[in-house]
Amino acid sequence: MTEQVDKSRPIENTTVFTSEETQRGYRLNKFAMSMCKPENREAFVEDEEAVLAAADLTETERQLIRDRDWRTIMDEHGGNIYMIIKIGAVIGHGLYQIGAHQRGETYEEFLSTRNAAGAR
Amino acid sequence: MAKIIAGIGTSHVPSIGVVHDQGRHDEPDWKPLFDAYGPVKKWLNEIKPDIAIVVYNDHGCDFFFDKYPTFAIGAAEKYEVGDEGWGRRPLPAFAGNPDFSWHLCNSLVYDEFDITVCQEMAVEHGFMVPMHLCWDHNDTWPVQVVPVAVNVIQHPLPTALRCWKLGQAIRRAVESCPDDLKVVILGTGGMSHQLNGARFGHLNTDFDKDFLDKIEADPMALTEMTHQHIMEEAGAEAVELIMWLTMRGALSSDVSRVHRNYYAPMTTGMGLIAMEDACLNRLT
Fold first, then answer.
1. Quick one: which of A116, B40, B187, B211 could link to B244 by a disulfide (CB 3.0–4.6 Å)?
2. Is residue B259 flagged as an active site residue?
C-alpha cells in the first residue's frame, strides 16, 4: 500500500480533509448541508439565533457561525469549504470573501493578488 | 457495438455557471474562457456522440459525509438539477439512458469495480458546468448522459492509478455493449486550486501545463502521483485532477488532440483538452 497523505510532510497553511477532520467537523458540515433546502435558508435569514439554537451544534460552533469566523472553522473545527460555503451563501459571504478571511486579507487586498479579478 | 470516440478534460469551476446563467460570457475577463469552448462545441456537433459519460465529484449536493460513495454511477431516466445551497439553476434536466447505464454497472461490478448504483441522482456544478461549456442547450440537451461521481473531497480518496483503471474498465464496459452508440467521456475538475486555509488561492501554472502535456502524451506518468504530491504542488483541491485519468484511461493509447486551452484568472487553473480516439476514423 502506498500512503497517499504523508502526515510527516504537513503542507503549510493547509488542512487536508482526512478522517480526523471529517469527524471533528461533522456537526458543522451537516448544519451547512442543511442549507441546500430553501426552507432552511429562509428560516436562517428570518431568525438566525433560533435556527442556531435548534441545530445540533456546540455553543463554540454556534459562536463561530455568529462571528463568521471562516478561518477558524476551516483550520480548527473540521469545516469543509464545500459545505461551509453554503452558510456563507445564505449570509452573503461568497467564496472569495471567505478566502480573503482565511488569508487574513480584506476582500480588495485579495482581489489585487489575482491575474484577472473580473472573472468572478 | 458501442465505442468511446473521444475524451475531454475540463475544469468545472462553479463561478462559470453563475456567469453562464447571467449571460456574461463576453465580459473581458471571461471571454478567453468561453471562447476556448467554441471549437469544442463545433467539433462535438460534427462527431455527434449519443452519450456523454461525465466523471465529476459531488460537492455536497446529493451526497453528504453520512454516506459518501467512492464511486457512484447514475442509472436514471432523468437527472434533475440539484440545489447546492443557492437555489436550482435555470437549466433543463438531463436525459439518461438506463439500459446503457445498467449495462455499464453490470460490466463494472463483474470486472471488480464495486460502484454504487443510483436510480435517482441530482446533479450539480461539477457535472453541469462541463455540460454547458461543451454543448448548447435550450429546453433539452443534445446528448444523453451517465454521471459518474468520484470521492475526491473526503480522504481516503481513490488513488490516481485506481481512477485510471476505472477508465479502462469503463472502456471494456462500453465495448461490450451491443448497441451502436458513440460515447464521449469527460473527466472534470481542477486544475490547480486551494480553497481552505491561508493558502487559499494557490495556483501552479507550470504544474497545470505539464499535466495537460502528460494527459495527452504520457498519462501513465500521472498515475504515479500521490495525493500528497498533487496537494503540495497544486493545492489541496487540485486532487480533483485524478478524475481526468478516468477519462484518459477510457481512451486508447492512440489519440489525437483537437483542442487545448489554459486560463488562470482567479483561484483555479481552468484547463481544457479534447482528444479524439483513433477508433473514430474507423467509424466514419
1. B187
2. no
